[in-house]
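Lab meeting prep.
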Amino acid sequence: MKRRSFVKSALLGLPAVPVANRLLGAEAGTDLLITGGRVIDPASGIDAMVDVAVRDGIITSVGRDLFPNALQIVDVGGRLVVPGLIDVHVHARDAELPPAANFSDGVTTLVDAGSRGAGNIDSIIRIGEAAPNRLRILLNIGMYGNNPGGRSEFLDGIATGDVGMARAAIHEHRDWIVGVKARLSRGVSAERDLQVLKRAILASEPFGIPVMIHIGDTSTPLPQLLSQLRPGDIVTHMYAPTPNGILDDNGRLLPEVRAARRRGIRFDFGNGLNEHWDWTVAEAAMAQDFPPDTISSDLNVPGRNAQVFNLPNVLSKFMVLGMSPGEVIACATQNAAATFSEFSDLGTLKPGAIADIAILDLAEGEFDFVDNYGGHRTGSRKLSPSRVYFGGVAAL
């Protein structure tokens, strides 16, 4: 290990191996060995105290007593060792919250969910090019994206949902754009939500990419919106309260919602800050066996300091709701990777996978968690980021 790596390990409170082990490690062919942790890799069915070995940025082995003479050995002291987290719904449009901030949270892959549209897509691509982690984009069907200049996308009319412009932008930037975003709440689309959705689908169809719809206080009842969706499309803010959420007036899950999941529609949490979820809806849905497919943060600048904070904090809320650590990790790794075909080789620690690895603390105590309406619940466990590797390289 070079001196810089040794100092970096020491500063993070993780022990580094003596320099004398370097040559033996080279003979063993292992660059990095992460040991002393509880490895949770839902894609492999692993939840055990085992080691993870890395060579040339690739996972080579997961097991007990691996390669004691690796070039660099990091003992994580009982922390969780999980695949690099994938946050399928963030807003990286703001210079004050660059992707590097998510990186420090253990998020190695993130998806900007509609911050920009075809008219200003270049600005979010520049952010992605400068990112230390992996940023991909959901193109907003609204020409200028989420709240351009303080205006909502469609309150002034449907013309900004230009299908031709959206298709041209996707074609030009297909290596960055992995889907299309449509915000359908009344405060964004007014009475035009169904038109907006249809335009988003038309824009996405030639490229075989999914549409993510933002629900909560839509003009059109949710079953009608769901009827337009195709397998692989995504509903975010799934626990938004009524009107037109996933529950009926008696708190029962709509049969059309369960049917949508059966035919391949994916449901994402999307914490955010404003009217996207409350504890009572989440608790009712969980009691009816309707957990999220993916757990995302919907993180923006204000969310960094309130309610959201980071993706591990959001994952912790679902342990309050009865999910195990392995189940919540699955929602931000294996399940998130399955949401976009471009991520098919991510979200796992299987040998041969890219060595994106997050080290998380799982603390026990009393922790306060809040929803978008000021509702509080107390949890006994909380996840927090400790360290992250991207392609086998430790983040600064």
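Slide two material, second protein:
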Amino acid sequence: MALINTQLNLNQACRLLFPKGKAPKFRAKGKDKRSYTTNWINNNIEIIHKSDTENYIKLPKLGRVRIILHRDIPAEWRMKNATVKETASGKFFISLTFDAETKPKERKAELGRIEAFDYSMPSLVVSASGENDITADDIRWYRNLEERIAKEQRKLSRMRHGSRNYWEQKHRIGKLHEKARNRRKDFLHKLSCNASRSSDAVIVEDINLQHMSQSLNFGKSVYDNGYGMLRNMLLYKLNDQGKILVKVDKFFPSSKRCSHCHEVNHELKLSDREWTCRSCGTHHDRDKNSCKNLLDEGKDILNRWASGDSSLILASSGVLSGKKLHPQAHLS
């Protein structure tokens, strides 16, 4: 079944990319994901409980393997497949997929508290309420370990490829990357959990992080912040509670518009962190001003959606945004 699943993944990649005139990219040797997927057939995959602290899983070709089960699985869930993966640090994880019936969440009729997040390169996000503001000391998970990673990688470059010392050093480097990744996920989970519990709706800007990472040498900082991961966490946590995530269009001038008189400053540069409106004379902090504009625009979107505006759509995932237009529509 592992070979069959790999073939099905390749067929799906070809089926999705060939109509677009593209072809799937094959992974380079040594950079493949050390994982495989096997399907549940005739109870060949089974979780065995010995005690509260001793659990096993039965896998095809491997037999019983002791595991740490981090949550109880309801008896009515039907298992579909299992994916075994080895991380860069040498740890093994098993991801189980189940088929279960879920009831659709009822949306809140009235929205009380609304929060807005604006992306900020130095501090990840700035909140409109100020309760979820983040400083630069709270983030920079990869940057804080960058020197240690570089030191360990220099040691790896002097070792013979494929030797025992080589793989032990690879695992040491993987543990450092895993430490940065775990710290990032833990912080973002706590931030998104606090925001989703205290707010009935959260407003974010639908910026293109991939294009931002490929311009102005921002790639490492953008990926280290994990803003896209934060938006995904907010999405499913708000949806589970019947709340809404509002996405403001990326072409909305949140940073350049004065939140007091709505005059747009077209001469504002990316390096300008503070500016004064020429029309009303209000002095603005760039990020706080952007948060106020996002909050006002998000509330306007919610009011238009509540009044039945057909240009807005609420997806089943809980995302409220405008309908997708052709790129040339923005130019016109």
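Talking points for slide two:
The chain has two domains: 29-99, 114-331.
The chain has eight helices and 14 strands.
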